[in-house]
Every structure is written in C-alpha cells, then in structure tokens.
Amino acid sequence: MRTGKDISSSNVLDYRFWSKYPSLNVKQRGTISVTTTDDSFPSAVTQTVHHNFGYKPQFMAFTKSYTSQNIDKYIFNLADYVNLDFYMEFEDVGANITEEVRGFVTENDFTVSANLFSAVSGDQQGLIYTYDIDYILFMEEAKPI
User: Fold this and answer.
1) Which residues are CB-contacts of 120 (< 8 A; sequence separation ≥ 6)?
2) How open is the CA angle 26-140-108, to the nearest 5 degrees?
3) H helices within 1-145, ranges in order?
4) Average pLDDT of the chain?
5) pLDDT digits (tens, 9 = 90+) for 33-91
6) Lowest-confidence range among 6-10, 84-88, 119-123?
7) What CATH number does domain 24-141 carry, 2.40.160, 3.40.50, 2.60.40, 1.25.10?
8) Which stretches of the chain are assigned E, i.e. beta strand?
9) Rounded to whole angstroms, how far apart are CA atoms 120 and 96?
10) CA angle, residues 103, 133, 96, in degrees to nearest 5
11) Cα separation, 5 vs 11, whole angstroms
C-alpha cells in the first residue's frame, strides 16, 4: 500500500502492487556503460546489448545524469536517476551545456546512445562523462498503441 492508504481501498492508485493487475516479467537485466568524448564536433556514442529475443521487448533504463552530478540540485531540482530518452539544456558559467541520453530496442538488440557537449560562442566542445545505465528487458513485447 502507499503510505497513508488502507488495505480495504478499491482504488488501484492506492496500491504499490495489486495482484488483480498483471505485472511485467523481467527476462534480462544488467548495466551498460557509455562514455562520451571530448571531440570538437561531438556526436552520440552508442553501446549495444544483444538480447536475441526475436521481438522488441518492453524495457526500462535509468542512469545518473551529468547534470545531477555537476550542477546544484537545489537550483535545477533534478533527480539522481533519470529515465532514458533524457534531454537537457542549461547554462553553466557562460557555457551552454546539452545532454542527451537515449535508448531503444530492436528484435535482437538494446542500444543506448549518449551525447554531452558545451557551446561557447557557437563552438561546440564535447565533455567526457561515463553513463552507467541500468536496464531491464521484459518478457512482454512492446506494441504500438
């Protein structure tokens, strides 16, 4: 039950887990690391996990963002862990920082990409940062809505 809620509630939102509703089944989990580069013209760096399921599984993936590690959380109010498909732009001491971390699945692979750079007077400069991405691949297939 959620804090302050009673077990006799019939509202599904009061529960953390309710056996009347199906839960996703974990098929594979792990951690994959992606390190961005300090190139003058940075592009996304990718890493791939080969799952070979033969279908696109539903997935969840989280990482600690550069932003939460290097910028005061009280100013930006960001969580330590962010879900993939994270994009952030902010100004830090005169430099515009852009951070992007993405993930996607295919029938055989789970791929993550990361790009992190600063721009001063229109020039881009990559920043080196390692994202340790915790991921879960579920048994259930991802289907379009």
Assistant:
1) 94, 95, 96
2) 90
3) 66-70, 73-76
4) 85
5) 999 999 888 889 999 999 999 999 999 999 988 877 665 554 555 556 777 888 887 77
6) 119-123
7) 2.60.40
8) 26-35, 45-50, 57-64, 81-83, 86-92, 95-105, 109-120, 123-126, 130-141
9) 7
10) 75
11) 10
